[in-house]
Amino acid sequence: MSRIIAVANQKGGVGKTTTSVNLSASLSLSGSKVLLIDLDPQGNATMGSGVNKNDLEASIYDWLVDGVALSGVVHRCQAGYEVLPGNADLTAAELELLRQDRREQRLKDRLSPDLDQFDYVIIDCPPSLNILTLNALIAADGVLIPMQCEYYALEGLTALLETIEGVRERGNPDLAIEGLLRTMYDPRNSLTRDVSRQLIQYFGDKVFRTVIPRNVRLAEAPSHGLPAVLYDRHSRGAVAYMALAGEIRRKHGAT
Amino acid sequence: MSRIIAVANQKGGVGKTTTSVNLSASLSLSGSKVLLIDLDPQGNATMGSGVNKNDLEASIYDWLVDGVALSGVVHRCQAGYEVLPGNADLTAAELELLRQDRREQRLKDRLSPDLDQFDYVIIDCPPSLNILTLNALIAADGVLIPMQCEYYALEGLTALLETIEGVRERGNPDLAIEGLLRTMYDPRNSLTRDVSRQLIQYFGDKVFRTVIPRNVRLAEAPSHGLPAVLYDRHSRGAVAYMALAGEIRRKHGAT
Ligand SMILES: Nc1ncnc2c1ncn2[C@@H]1O[C@H](COP(=O)(O)OP(=O)(O)OP(=O)(O)O)[C@@H](O)[C@H]1O
Ligand SMILES: Nc1ncnc2c1ncn2[C@@H]1O[C@H](COP(=O)(O)OP(=O)(O)OP(=O)(O)O)[C@@H](O)[C@H]1O
Ligand SMILES: [Mg+2]
Ligand SMILES: [Mg+2]
What we know:
2 copies of one chain form a homodimer. By secondary structure, chain A is of the alpha/beta class. Chain A has 12 helices and 7 strands.
């Protein structure tokens, strides 16, 4: 049974891509078959996985809009997971989807024939609650919410939770919250500790025990086209993402 | 003569809102008449200016789409600038604009009757190259590009510069680059220094001399509904934004 996890938060720069790439790599290195879908026109998860978004024969646009087979678009990455690469063509896909019927279900429909090949499908979402993110939420079993422990990120949670509630009513009643992941966590910073305390107060065990520290190796790894778990596997950032993968596998019975 | 500055970068979390709010406050405290426009459905610039986005009688939607007069929507803030508040209704405005004819010119058209009341109009853009950001670029005299000195932000510059070039061809030939602003700058971090060197190499004097340091007071101020230049005017973050306001005023002859 495969599990589809959307990594989403409309607040920008909270660690969606860093989480998607390093979680995919960590799950893959511990034996799971993983597909990483880059649903952001910025194409960061693609570049961060070592695939050049500007030099693709086929991209997620061809698969999502034109119906090209998955096997004709994916790239296998050094850490062993497959990536469905994205680039600026996704902006055109957004406008194209707005014109169609079942426009929110498109990703779910396109995924179903290939789903049984993977244990996990990880979807990196853009910083917006647009039709692309809605497609990810309709297709997903769970939503992983990366959270910088700062005011604007906390303030934006309400809108995200309302959108998730709306998706449950409109097409995906079983959409669960996989968890809230504290990222770029700096324990010396009282604002960070304060927001973290509020998260645990409101969300309890929906907050992952694993906390991702601020660690420069996580920011350096993408320029080498590698996840941190390969670029510097003993770094605090890499170790934290391996721990996150373990926490997720235990939740769903390791696959 | 008023100057319209769009603060834009599709990369999320690079400091667009923090720059918009603190630059508006700094220009206002040094005597300029300033309008801050919140064009992001997240409504962060609105909250960061002390206006409750969830309790508005009228928002930017009413002004932009329904043609309500500016004086009926703006709020005067403690630092003296006016804010045109935004909230999630902007997502509906986006879909509404896509249906209209002069859809990219709407903001420019709506601004022109009130422009002579202000020395500066600062537009906080969402983390996307969508119809809202396009409206800001069509209306603007200059684009201020906040830049975190990290790989994904550097990598995303090409797409942003191509969009700016497209806007010059399609409707705003005089659109200038106000400057690239290095934000959350940590000089101890070799990745930051490295990316900063590349920015100066490619963009020369288009890179602002003023550098905004990473400073926790900038992240704390929004939870008090205040710009940092009021919350803690002697902090390194506040001083840097006052210096940026000075650099911009000198460029255009202080107004
Ligand atoms: N734990 C961390 N420690 C240090 N740097 C980090 C960490 N996580 C992410 N970063 C860096 O912070 C920046 C933002 O992270 P990232 O791009 O993953 O966020 P995002 O939510 O995907 O952004 P966007 O909203 O643009 O999609 C990147 O430059 C990344 O390399
Ligand atoms: N110089 C700085 N030092 C420390 N923290 C900062 C600094 N600038 C911004 N921040 C914090 O970093 C986070 C991101 O900044 P901000 O929200 O202004 O970026 P943005 O580009 O507007 O994000 P979005 O893409 O979501 O609109 C916020 O929590 C903010 O408080
Ligand atoms: Mg991202
Ligand atoms: Mg912002």
